[in-house]
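Whiteboard transcription, Tuesday session. T.W. wrote the C-alpha cells on the left side:
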C-alpha cells in the first residue's frame, strides 16, 4: 500500500479531537452525551492527544504495513474476563449515507449538512451523492470535493469523507466510501463512469431477463476493481456497503453472496436499518394526509410491493421494516443469520439517507433558465422560506447512528474499525455506550469483541460480557430513552450454503432475553454460554420495549421481536432498537488443545 503524502492539499487539515475527547475543552461546555462519552473514553485510557495517534489521516512507513496486516483482525489485550473488553476501543458515531445539492434529489448545501451532523453528535460522516452524468462529467464531483475540503477546514472535529451512492448493476444501491488522499475524486469518477448501472444502462431486468447474468457479473467486477485500486495504492482505502437491501426486493441472496465473495475486504455488509425513518412520524403523516388524503406511510419508505424485477422467493413481509429495521436484519433466522451461519463477517449499519429533513424551512433553489442538474453538476442552494417544508428524513445523527470501535481518531481508523466488524447501531439515542466481549472458560484465552473470532475446544464453555451504559440525557425528541431488554441471539456456523439463494438459518434463535427495565448507569451483564461441539456466533439486540411480537418463525425462535407497524402508525420515537455485530466462536475438534 502506498504511503500517504501528508502534505498533499487533497488530504485536508489534520482533524482535531472531538470536544468530548479533548481535555482542553471544559466539561461544562459539553452536553450530557459528551460528558458520558468523556467518561467512556477515560475508562479506555485514550483521553487526550494520544487518541489522535501518529497520523489522523493514515499511517506512514512501518505503520502502514502493520495496519494492512491487521485490517481484518481484532487486537486483544491481556485483560480477559469481566475487567474489560479486548484492547482499548472507543466507539465513534457516524453516518455513511448522506446527500447534498450534488445529488439530483436532495437539497442541502455542505455548510448546512455538516453543521447539522456536528450538532447531532457525529464524529464521522460520508457524503454519498447519487451517481449521475452531472456528477461525473459536469464537474459535480470536483466541485463537491472543494466543498468537502472547506467543510474539513470548518469542522476539524468531524471526519468528513467523500463517497458515492452507486446504482449497482442489476440491483439496488450501495455506499462507496473512500479515504482522503490524492485520488479520492478520480477513483469515484472512474468508478461511476465504468460501473454505475444508471450511467451505463446495466439495468435491473424482469426475472429471467437474458441480460441479467451479465449485469450481475458487472457488479462483481466492480468490487474486484475497487479492491485492486486499493492494493496497488491508487487510493489509501475504499469499502462498500449495500443500502436499503429489501426496499424493492430486487437484491437477491445470490447477489449479496457474490458481492461478498468478490472481495470481503471491500464489500462489508448492508444497512441494517434504512434512512427515511420519519416517513411514518405522526406529524409527517398528518401533513401528507392533509395534502392528498389517506396514504401508505412506513418507516424507511418501505411501502412497496413485488414487481417483475423482484426476486420471487422473498415473502411479502420483506417489503416492510420491523422496528424500523430492514427485514433482512430484523428477522431472527432470516437473511442476515443465513449469511452469518456461513461464517461470513457481515456488518449492519444504520443511517439517515438524508435528502429532505422533516419540516425544515428550506425549499429547493431555482435553476438558471434552460439549465438542469446534468448541465451544472449540482442543484442550486436551497432558499429559506421560513415556512416548514415536508420531508421524510432526519438530520444525520438526529435519529440513526452507527458506532464503530477505534483506537485512534482518524479516517483510516474508522475504516479499519468497519472492516474489523467492531460495529453496533441504535435509533433514538437508546444507549450512551455498549461494550461486548467474550472469553473461553479455560481461563487462558484472551477476550474478543464485536467482529472477532474466539477459538474454543469442542464442548468447552464460553462467557459473554455485555457492558451497557444507559441513556443519560434527553434524546433529540426530548425524552430520556430507557432500555427494557437485551436479547442474546445465537446460530450455528454450518459453512457455505449449497443454495446461493438460501435466506433462512434454521438454527438461529433468541437463546436468552434479559430484562433490564429500570436499570440505569453503567452495568455489566454476564451470560454463560452452553457447551457446543460446532462453531457458532452470538449477536445482540434490545429495545425500549414499546412494540414487539412473536417473530415470523414462531415463539421458539423469537418470542418477542420487532414488528411491522400498521400503515401510518409508525412513530419512530416510540419504537427504538439497538443491534450489535456478531462474535464468532470457532469450535475446534476435541483433540485440539486448549
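and on the right, the sequence the group agreed on:
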Amino acid at each position: 500500500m502506498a504511503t500517504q503524502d501528508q502534505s498533499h492539499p487533497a488530504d485536508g487539515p489534520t482533524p482535531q479531537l472531538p470536544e468530548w475527547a479533548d481535555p482542553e475543552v471544559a466539561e461544562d461546555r459539553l452536553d450530557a452525551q459528551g460528558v458520558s462519552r468523556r467518561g467512556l473514553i477515560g475508562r479506555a485510557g485514550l483521553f487526550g492527544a494520544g487518541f489522535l495517534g501518529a497520523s489522523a489521516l493514515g499511517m506512514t512507513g512501518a505503520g502502514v504495513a502493520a495496519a494492512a496486516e491487521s485490517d481484518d483482525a481484532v487486537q486483544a489485550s491481556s485483560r480477559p474476563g469481566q475487567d474489560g473488553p479486548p484492547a482499548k476501543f472507543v466507539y465513534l458515531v457516524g453516518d455513511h449515507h448522506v446527500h447534498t445539492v450534488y445529488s439530483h434529489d436532495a437539497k442541502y448545501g455542505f455548510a448546512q449538512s455538516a453543521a447539522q451532523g456536528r450538532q447531532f453528535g457525529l464524529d464521522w460522516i460520508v457524503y454519498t451523492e447519487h451517481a449521475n452524468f452531472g456528477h461525473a462529467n459536469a464537474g459535480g464531483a470536483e466541485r463537491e470535493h472543494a466543498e468537502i475540503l472547506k467543510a474539513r477546514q470548518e469542522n476539524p472535529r468531524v471526519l468528513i469523507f467523500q463517497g458515492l451512492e452507486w446504482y449497482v448493476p442489476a440491483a439496488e444501491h450501495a455506499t462507496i466510501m473512500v479515504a482522503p488522499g490524492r485520488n479520492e475524486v478520480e477513483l469515484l469518477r472512474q468508478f461511476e463512469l465504468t460501473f454505475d448501472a444508471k450511467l451505463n444502462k446495466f439495468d435491473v431486468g424482469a426475472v429471467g431477463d437474458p441480460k441479467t447474468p451479465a449485469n450481475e457479473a458487472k457488479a462483481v467486477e466492480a468490487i474486484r476493481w475497487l479492491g485492486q485500486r486499493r492494493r496497488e495504492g491508487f487510493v489509501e482505502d475504499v469499502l462498500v456497503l449495500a443500502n436499503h437491501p429489501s426496499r424493492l426486493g430486487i437484491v437477491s441472496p445470490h447477489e449479496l453472496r457474490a458481492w461478498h465473495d468478490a472481495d470481503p475486504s471491500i464489500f462489508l455488509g448492508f444497512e441494517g436499518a434504512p434512512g427515511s425513518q420519519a416517513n411514518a412520524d405522526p406529524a409527517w403523516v398528518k401533513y401528507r394526509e392533509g395534502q392528498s388524503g389517506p396514504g401508505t406511510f412506513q418507516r424507511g419508505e418501505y411501502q412497496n410491493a413485488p414487481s417483475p424485477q423482484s426476486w420471487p422467493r422473498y415473502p411479502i413481509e420483506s417489503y416492510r421494516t420491523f422496528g424500523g429495521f430492514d427485514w433482512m436484519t430484523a428477522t431472527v433466522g432470516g437473511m442476515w443469520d443465513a449469511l452469518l451461519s456461513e461464517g461470513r463477517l457481515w456488518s449492519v449499519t444504520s443511517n439517515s439517507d438524508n435528502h429532505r429533513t422533516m419540516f425544515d424551512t428550506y425549499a429547493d433553489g431555482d435553476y438558471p433558465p434552460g439549465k438542469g442538474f446534468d448541465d451544472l453538476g449540482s442543484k442550486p442552494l436551497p432558499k429559506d422560506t421560513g415556512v416548514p417544508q415536508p420531508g421524510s428524513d432526519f438530520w444525520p445523527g438526529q435519529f440513526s447512528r452507527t458506532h464503530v470501535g477505534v483506537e485512534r481518531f482518524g479516517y483510516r481508523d474508522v475504516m479499519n474499525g468497519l472492516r474489523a466488524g467492531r460495529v453496533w447501531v441504535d435509533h433514538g439515542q437508546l444507549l450512551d455506550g455498549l461494550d461486548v466481549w467474550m472469553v473461553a472458560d479455560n481461563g487462558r484465552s484472551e477476550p474478543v469483541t464485536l467482529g472477532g473470532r474466539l477459538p474454543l475446544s469442542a464442548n468447552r464453555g464460553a462467557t459473554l460480557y455485555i457492558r451497557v451504559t444507559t441513556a443519560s440525557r434527553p434524546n433529540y425528541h426530548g425524552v430520556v430513552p430507557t432500555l427494557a431488554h437485551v436479547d442474546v441471539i445465537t446460530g450455528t456456523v454450518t459453512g457455505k450454503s449449497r443454495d446461493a439463494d438460501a435466506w433462512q438459518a434454521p438454527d438461529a434463535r433468541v437463546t436468552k432475553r434479559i430484562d433490564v427495565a429500570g436499570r440505569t448507569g453503567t452495568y455489566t451483564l454476564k451470560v454463560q454460554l452452553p457447551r457446543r461441539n460446532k462453531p457458532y456466533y452470538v449477536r445482540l439486540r434490545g429495545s425500549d420495549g414499546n412494540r414487539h411480537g412473536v417473530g415470523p418463525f414462531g415463539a421458539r425462535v423469537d418470542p418477542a421481536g420487532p414488528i411491522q407497524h400498521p400503515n401510518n402508525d409508525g412513530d419512530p420515537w416510540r419504537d427504538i432498537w439497538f443491534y450489535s455485530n456478531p462474535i464468532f466462536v470457532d469450535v475446534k475438534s476435541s483433540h485440539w488443545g486448549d
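Someone added at the bottom: The domain at 430-588 is CATH 2.60.40.10 (Immunoglobulin-like).
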